[in-house]
Amino acid sequence: MNINRIIISRTDSIGDVMLTLPMCGVLKKHLPACEIIFLGRTYTKAVIECSSFVDHFENWDEWNDTSPQNQIDQLTKWKADVIIHVFPRKEILWVAKRARITWRIATGRRLQTITKCNKLVFFTRKNSQLHEAQLNIKLLSPLGIKDTYATTELADLSGFSAPTAPTEQYVLAKANVQIDNSTVRQRIVLHPLSQGSAVEWGLKNFQQLIDLLDPNECDVFITGTKAEGERIKQKHTWSGNHVHVLCGVFNLEELIVFISTCDVLVAASTGPLHIAAALGIRAIGLYSPKRPIHSGRWAPLGVDAHVLVSDKHPVKGEYLDIDPDKVLNLID
Question: CA-CA distance, 48 to 86, in Å (whole number)?
Fold first, then answer.
């Protein structure tokens, strides 16, 4: 079959989308003339549009609540030859079948994919030794792409770079960062919360790390959503004149640009961690050893990406047991 257009469907969170972007690079490597359409959500649009390998972003949120016929029409208009259901959402599986997309690819371990897709790939994610990005590449086997990629190779295949707008100057001004070229101060981003997507390190551990950092040599920026900032305020007050709270200050495009201007980001397995790694800054991920949320599956991909793993999975109400000195060593 002559493949001209491929739709990649992944309508979940930022971290999941970041680890799907290497699939776009692999497709362009093997099928350089194909057009790649990424079906995502408003929440992840800014991330998807940062990949040079994505030709067009399509927003599922804009037609999710419309009529079934309109959804079919929206998918049909692209005249796609292939749709890859990386995140098999039943509504999209249904629409893709009725849009008569020739090849509909998904894992073969769910009833809804078996009945809606005609190219099934059989593997298990939960018990696999492979990284999430490597597992995603398995879905390309019906297209004759059966290469095995190391995670170091996949890190170079996301095509990810910070947007040119907004500018660095605008974002730094919004963060109230004073640029003083006469001194060199390290910019360290701490992203304490995870919106429930990962086991957290705890605010006290982040504060201990801040206390270990030299205030004469670095600036520390606390990031998160506005809601996360309010949650933090109820539990903790950051100490240190070199600490700047930026929760709720940026939209996603601005956050990506801001991270690109920094030197280090520390977080649990969250979207900002994966963004930092893809931008090439030092990304330090904090992980539980528990499957399937362990670093072997979800580690950030990048030339300067690192992980620290707790000795044990914390019980309910507790946090990752990782010594702040270990994080400091990686920062240094």
Answer: 14
